[in-house]
Write a structure and sequence with these properties.
By secondary structure, the chain is an alpha+beta fold. It folds into three domains: 74 residues; 184 residues, Jelly Rolls (Sandwich); 82 residues, Phage tail protein beta-alpha-beta fold (3-Layer(bab) Sandwich), CATH 3.55.50.30. It has nine helices and 24 strands. α1 packs parallel to α3. It is globular, with a radius of gyration of 26 Å.
């Protein structure tokens, strides 16, 4: 009997360790199956002399199981949602190679070659692209496997879109970005997933919080205006609040609340403290401008690469050069590089295959040597 009791408790302990150490995610069906299996072991008929002992064991085992499942549902459920979103995001992988703006809807794709497009969802899920209604019942092109419950828009280099969701929320989506969202939101929550950058004007709904999920953070609001920048290349996520209020939460459940004209960064695995800033530094891209203030040249060029099919390789002597200024990203790219070259004293050398080497100009080198 003692051996059997230890075996049952060991199984409970193994289940808890599996959840804690391996972050194992169970389906509801597997949970029910596990419960029934262990319950049958606990309730297996025994001799009368051991009834009281087994009754106590059943209570103890039940409490352990309750703790395990409580941990799973209360602590891990947010991870389940995130895993779900990341799984959905993976289903859209490989669709961002096109030079066209790509809308994936009902498992099919619609592409537009325009530099800037407008995509609008009505309350009942009717979709229009540049004022043209999309009939999703017809076979479109490039059929892929994706969740029918979610749509995705992919914005390549050099392009931007205006996106209106079914609840009336408006997004301005920057180059090199991807947004995943439901065709029609649920009644009690509105969730979207973003990689890249977008400016949000969230439609107010006190009964359905709006949650923006990035690879590192969740941003929760009821109705407000804010910017999310979450490019992998920049190795940081930045949330900037324009109007209203937002709560920013990382995966460790650390959270901060932002007031208007405040910004917070998540970098090196840590959520920072809110800082008062000039919001135009993070939002003027919506109007076609890139403003930077004491920003390393490498970061300036990385952001510029989102708008053109070019990658920059900075010499160590110039990569941390701090720049301040304002660029009109709608102007000719060669003109932008010329302005940077004259201002920063650097030279841009094409190396082929979309690569450009950035070094000090000869005059700057002579000046530095003196």
């Amino acid at each position: 009997m003692q051996k059997n009791s230890r075996n049952i408790l060991n199984e409970f302990d193994s289940l808890i360790r599996s959840i804690k150490e391996n972050d194992e995610v169970f389906s509801q069906k597997s949970i029910d199956t596990e419960w029934q299996r262990l319950y049958r072991k606990i309730e297996k008929p025994k001799k009368n002399i051991y009834k009281k002992l087994y009754f106590s064991l059943s209570i103890a085992a039940g409490l352990i199981l309750l703790f395990a499942f409580s941990y799973f549902f209360l602590i891990k459920r947010d991870e389940i949602k995130r895993v779900s979103f990341e799984t959905i995001a993976e289903s859209f992988q490989g669709q961002g190679e096109s030079t066209d703006i790509t809308l994936i809807i009902d498992g099919k794709t619609v592409k537009t070659p325009k530099e800037k497009s407008t995509i609008t969802y009505s309350k009942n899920g009717i979709v229009t692209v540049d004022d043209k209604k999309i009939d999703t019942k017809k076979a479109l092109s490039d059929v892929i496997e994706a969740s029918d419950d979610y749509n995705c828009v992919i914005v390549p280099k050099g392009k931007r879109i205006n996106l209106t969701l079914s609840d009336g929320t408006k997004l301005y989506v920057n180059s090199r970005s991807r947004i995943i969202y439901p065709k029609i939101f649920a009644a009690n929550v509105r969730e979207v997933y973003i990689e890249g950058e977008a400016y949000f004007e969230v439609a107010h709904n006190k009964d359905a919080p709006f949650v923006v999920k990035t690879i590192n953070l969740d941003v929760e609001v009821l109705g407000t205006v804010f910017n999310v920048s979450s490019y992998k290349e920049l190795e940081k996520t930045t949330i900037t609040l324009v109007e209203g209020s937002v709560k920013v939460t990382d995966h460790k459940k650390n959270d901060v609340k932002l007031k208007p004209s405040q910004s917070v960064e998540y970098t090196s695995g840590k959520l920072g403290e809110p800082e008062h800033i000039d919001v135009s530094l993070h939002t003027d891209w919506v109007s076609g401008y890139y403003i930077f203030n004491s920003t390393p040249l490498q970061e300036v060029l990385t952001k510029l690469s989102f708008y053109q099919d070019v990658n920059f390789e900075c010499d160590l002597s110039v990569s941390n050069l701090m720049l301040s200024g304002k660029l009109d990203i709608r102007t000719d790219f060669d003109e932008i590089l010329q302005n940077l070259s004259e201002t920063a004293g650097v030279e841009f050398i094409p190396k082929g295959n979309g690569l450009m080497l950035v070094t000090c100009t000869k005059s700057a080198s002579i000046t530095n040597s003196n």
